[in-house]
Every structure is written in C-alpha cells, then in structure tokens.
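agent: user wants the full assembly modeled, not chains individually. Plan: 1) parse entity lines 2) check alphabet per entity 3) run joint structure prediction 4) return tokens. Steps 1-2 passed, three entities, 936 residues total. Proceeding.
--- entities ---
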Amino acid sequence: MTDHQSTILDGRAMDRTLRRMADEIVELNDGTDDLIIVGIQRRGVQLAARIVSSINEREGVDVPNGALDITLYRDDLQTVGPRPVVGPTNLPWAIDGKCVVIVDDVLYTGRTVRAALDELADFGRARRIALAVLIDRGGRELPIQPDVVGKTVKLASGGRVDVMVKELDDRDAVTMTGAEGK
Amino acid sequence: MSTPALLLRGGRLVDPSQGLNEIGDLLIVNGLIEGSGHLGEIRRDGALETIDCAGQVVSPGFVDVHCHLREPGREAVETIVTGARAAAAGGFTAVCAMPNTDPVTDNQAAVGFIIRQAQRAGAARVYPIGAISIGQMGQTLAEFGEMVGAGAVAVSDDGKPVVSAQLMRTALEYARTFGIPVADHCEEPTLAANGAMNEGIISARLGLRGIPAEAEEIMAIRDILLARLTGGHIHLCHMSTKGSVELIRWGKDRHINVTAEVCPHHLSLTEEAVEGYDTNAKMNPPLRTAADVAALQEAVKDGTIDVIATDHAPHHYDEKEREFADAPNGIVGLETALAVNLTWLVHRGVIDVPMLVERMACAPARIFKLPGGTLRRGSVADVTVFDPDAPWTVDPARFRSKGRNTPYAGHTLRGLVGLTVVEGRVIHRREQ
Amino acid sequence: MTASESLGKDLLGLEHLSSDQIRLILDTAEPFKEISERAIKKVPTLRGSTIVNLFFEASTRTRISFEFAEKRLSADSVNVASTGSSVSKGETLVDTARNLEAMRIDMVVIRHGASGAAQFLAERIESNVINAGDGTHEHPTQGLLDMLTLRDRFKRLAGLRVCICGDVLHSRVARSNIWGLQKMGAEVAVCGPRSLLPNAIAEFGVTVFERIEDAIQWADALNILRLQLERMQGGYIPSLREYNRVFGVSRERLERAPKDILILHPGPMNRGVEIDSDVADGPHSVILNQVTNGVAVRMAVLYLLAGGRPELAEAAKGGGAR
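--- prediction returned ---
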C-alpha cells in the first residue's frame, strides 16, 4: 500500500475552524468568566493564541492565555532517548476555581492530554478542565475525549497528521499521510 | 662443573667491550667464554649443546642496576625468586636490588639474606644495594664496609632522596674506601611534596599536583658538586629531565666522578600518558615532556647518560586501582625494557644495537664493577640472545613478575629475548 | 522533537564537552527555572530513579542544591557522606563503586577530594555519574550555573570578558569556568598572586592580570573565588589581611571601573578577604541568582543524563507517535 499525502485543511479552512472552535468554547463555558485557555507546546500554543484573539475580538474581553510543556510529565521518558527538548511553561495565574481549556493540535492516544491533566493538577484545582483539539484522529489508548473538535479524521495507526502554523512553519495547513482507518 | 658446554651458532655477536659486531659462534665451557668467531666444527669430549642463533643478536647479558624486588616485606607483590625470573625473561643476567624493603637492607645480615634467596632462585644474579642511612631515615650512615663484605655492590636510599647535603657528602667520602658508587634518587622534597606528575599544562588541566623538573635538577647538581668536593662516585638514578642532562654533561666535562642512568619509560613516554588519570603512568620521577624525552635519548646516544636501568617497581594489582593522587608510584620494567628500548631507540634510528648493548650490559657492569658485560675469552659466560625485530604485544598476564602494572599493556613492541645464559647455564629460553 | 546532541553517560567536566552540549544544558535549564517558582515545586520526570549523592568532602550548598534538583524531579535520593559510612573505615573507591552497582542505582553524584575520582567511578559503573567537584580538577555544574547567570544578565556569552579572581591553582571552579566560557566564545582572564596560579596558566589561553585594578578596568564580570584559609598555612600567601589589601574586591576599586561589573562568587564567601561585604551585597552582585540557577542547572543535567534506555524504547515502540 503506498502512502499518499492529502490536505485536510488549508489556511482559510483552518482559520474558519478555529473561529468556530472559539465560539464553541465560549458556549461551553457560558461566557468568558473565569476562562483560561492553555496551549500545549508546541503547536497547541499557537492555536490557543488564535482562539484567544478570536474570543477577545468577538467578546471584547481579555482572556488569559497560558502555555504548558508536558515533556516532564510524559509517561515514556524512561524509554525515549535522546531526551526531548523541554519548552517553556507559562501559567502565571492561579487556576483554582477557574475553567481551564486545554488546546492541542492533534488528539491521538490521549497520553499528552493525560500528562497535561497531571501537570495542571500540580498548579491547582480548576473548577473544570475542558479539551479543545483541532484534529481528532482516533486511536485512543486512554479514556479521554475532547469537548471541542475542529475536524475528525479516520487514520490507521501507521499514518500521521501534520499541523502547520504560520508562526513556526511559514503556512497554515493540516495534512495527513497514510491509509484511512476504521 | 656439570653444566654441558654450549655452542651458540651463527648469531650476530655484538660486544662493544671489544668492538665486536659480526656473525659468528660463541662457545661456552665450564661457565666461561671459551671462544668466539667462526669456530667451525667443534670436537670435544663430554656433552655439547648447540643452539642455532641465526637472525639473532648474541650479546653480553644485560645488567639492571636499579630494580625493586620487594622481598623482604612485600612478598605478595614480588619476591627475589619471581623478580630474578622476570629478569631472566627480560634478558637480564644480573640485577641490583634496591634496599627500600621492609626491613630496609641496611646491614650485612639483610644483604646476606638477599644473596641466599637469589642463589635459591637459580635465575638472574641478584646483587644487593645497601642503604646509605640506617632505615633510610637520612640520619645515621649505615655500615658500608660490612654490607660490601656481605655482597653489596653499591649504596642508595632510593625511594627517598638524601635530604641532608652533609650526609651525602659523608657517604660519598666514606664509600671511596670500598670503591662503590653512591646512587641517589634526586628529588628536592619540599618542591616535590605531594606531587603526582610532571608540573606543566597537563597537571594544571587535570588538577594534579605537579613535580617541577627543578626538584630533580637541584639535587642532581648538588650531588655533582658534592662528588667534585669529595672525589666520590655519584651515580644519579633515573634521570628524567633535559636540565639534568645538561648538568651531568657539565659535570662530566669537568671530569667529576658522576655516572647516570635513565629508565626505558622516560625514553619513550611523555606526561600525556597520564591523561585519563591512568595510574600505570604514575611514577617517580614522573613522565616528562617530549623535549625531555628527546634530550634523554640524545644523552643515551652521546654517553652523557651511561646506563639504561629499569626501576622495576611492581605493585599489587589493586594498589594501582584507585584515585591517581593516592596510587603508588612505579611500573614493572624487567620484561619490557629491551623491547621498549629497541622500539623507541633502535628502530627509530636514535642508536644502533651495539650502543644499546653498551648501555644495557657493558656500561652497567663496568660502573658497578660486576662480572659480565663482555664476551671476552675467559670471562664469565653471562650472555643474552635476542631477536631485535620480532614484534609482540604486551600482555601483562604473561609476565613472570608478580607485578602487572605497566603503561605498555596492549602496545606492540619489537624485540624478543630468545635465550638468557648465566655462567654457562640457560636460565631462560623463549617458548616456541 | 529530540535534543540535537546528547550528553553521553556522565558529566565529568566541561573541558571535553562541545559548545553545542553546553548550550543544550543551559537551554534546558531555562524551563526548569519556572518549576522552582510553582506552588508545587515538583514534576514526576525522574519518578522511580534512584540517585546516590556520594560526598567524600563536606559541602553543604552543593549537596543541598543537588538534593533539591533531585527531589523536584521526583527522584529517590540517598545521601552518603564520608563521616559515619564505610568510606571513613578505609573502604576504597573501587569497593564503594561495586557496592553501589550491586544496589542497582541509576545515578551517582560524587564529590571527592581527589582529582579524577569522578572519572574513576564513571569508568567502573554503568550508572550515570555527575561530578560535583573532584579535587582541583573540575566542578562542571558550578561552571554551568555561573554561565547561566552571566547569560541571564548579558543575554550572551560570546565576547563577554570574565575575569576569575583568586586561587586558580587549587580551584576546580576556575577550571570549569575557563573551559566552559572559552567554548562559548567568552574572553577569560585570571587575576591573583602568582603563587596561586598554575605555572602553566598562559597555556590555558587566558589573559593574566597581576593586579586586581587592571582586571577591573578590563572585565564585564568578576568571578571571585573563595580563598581557602589553608592556603595561608600552606605558605602560598603571607596573610589574609595582605591578600585583602592587594587582591580583595572592594567598592572603592569597583568604583574606578569604566562600567558596572557583574560580581559572581561560588560561595561560601570569606567576607573581608577576597570580597568586601558591600560588594557581595551590592547592586551588581548576582551571587544569590547563582544559587537559584544552581538548582535549575542541576535539574537540567539530571534530566538530560537520566533515562533513555533503548531496550525499553523498543518495547514501547508505536506508542508516542501522533
């Protein structure tokens, strides 16, 4: 079977999708009170920033926007080598009693989200933690589900989804490589 | 005498004591050299063993004027028997044992003990060197006369310097009566205190306390000046620096009675061998710089340095297995000396084989007034036969010495001893 | 995403590290600073790892710094000090090493009075070894935290002029700083009495200032070494009073500098000897920043050296991809 690459979202579609996700987050939260948006390093951070600016623009508010690097909470650190680069974590607000929305680019096994939940627990006790992902590709290994999804794709385990953002990759796009799964 | 006559056939006879360097035969009868040259067919009554020496060098047996055999006191590390066998395997027919044993060889009974143990070994001859001072404490002169009477051939406090200039002066004067050299370990103790290696950029980088060349040179010139003052014979042990060479040359130019030795490791290795804190590169005096090695090689060539001696210093395997600063000084040398000298001096064109034989056999016998050191007719048949070219890889596990501490482990060297003969008797024969 | 270049098994010194490796450690230390600012100062990264802090020399601050770094990474650590252990009963370092190995520990942090002791241990055990100071050889984590502190302030190391002041001869801190800073492109000088500089100091590629006044004219930063009081008994200097008068860093001397000079000191300080109190406590002192950065640097080193067991990676294949 030959792998083929296809574009799931181009730049304009990605922009539309993120605006819709921003609306859904506000809806989910019944407004913007106590809302904190936290992007997961790396591309989740850029996606979170776009979502936050979309919310701020529409609602005329200033929603706090943090960044979380989950490397030190990974469950596979004993098995990977060389060591992954640790990015900055920036969460200068107390999250106790707040509604935290985690933003990530792709939801797959759920292990990254598990690590993010553990890390957030070390920062305090949020009232509620929700999950927003641009792409849900299935293939969960943990009982984790997203609350807000940009797009769902079916992809077999050998395939991969690449999310590109202008800030890091010079263009906005989501591509997928490999066979469709169940 | 029951030893059969021995005919060494067709080797290159190298004997600088008589300017001999030619292919020929050597006949040994009753422990003496009977004749040499193209001897043709030998007809004689009684047993005659003929050994083919084609392609090998036949020379006077090597004499090591400086080794540590550890007995009495540290028999787990080396004994006179194992040391004498290691010597034989290295082509040495005689070695001089330094007195820094436990107890110190500082009286006639202790000297006699070594002689008796050596006779029992039946390998290389072992000549005791007596201490200069009682217990090597640097205070009271030992009884040179009685020690010489018992068989000592020189005096030394080796392992330690003679700190007191007055004691050294007295020793040089007193030794004149007995015609023996006073061998000194040149080290100014306050400059060398706690030093672990040569002082220089490498010691500074590794954070190891350095021993400056001057610690040796200050004592070398002191000893040379005291030899001038007293007319005594000063023998400077294990010279390691370019400066020492210049000072010895200064002394010899003035006909001061000074002789000097250098060790194979100081002719071949530099302080760089210490990198990685290799305790097998730790010795005293320490390995120095490339400029020092070059000056020492030149001094061997021009005769400023008279003899090459091993400073064979075995240690138990786990004594070297520790932090560098705490590891003991010294390496074994008897079984690698010839090959190291051939590899670094002869095969690199510094000296030729006859000069090497002069420095390892003739000069040491002459300076310490020992039998051997020549193949002249009628002299004692102490003979070494060696292949100057054969390559071999140093494997310390195969040493006859109990010591395994060598920086040459794994090195491929050239030069193998084929036969070692003491008084006409084969004490070592290379396994085929 | 993986770190471009790994550190290997051990951290024994900075002399044999590349500039990329040093940069990796410093860059990795940055995110670790933030962890110490959290309410819960702990991440689970080294959960299940066992670390022995093997201190053959007393050193309160280095040991505590390593201990905090280990605990904030959730490692299990045990302190072995030279008093009250078999070490003081004359057990050799090689026996200590074998015993540690037999207890299946993951890492050893070693402080030892003999130069080369860390390398000695590293060559004999499979665990990762971190040199926390060996004799007068190196103290790599100190060199790294000094560099991190300089980089925090100047935003660069290349071209920076750093003078190391005092007893360079006996200082492992000096050696690690010289190697590290030179690799990162800084200009390094030393200043101290010649009796406390290695004779071969020029071959280190550093500038030598005979007088502290000249060093102050030149430098962007001074790293002032502790003057061990034993040096006076050892006869290297006549008195602490005279040392302070000739080489001490005082406010008066600093005021004559053409610019503000950053002041570092690895501690513990001898106030009134190598450094005056108003300099140590002054506006340009980053001595406490060094202590803070020490924990982050050590966390980074522990993180980079730990783990990475390939046999487990094989078994876990397929799990991590997105």
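agent: reporting back. Helices of chain A lie at 11-28, 43-59, 111-123, 166-169. The first helix of chain A runs from residue 11 to 28.
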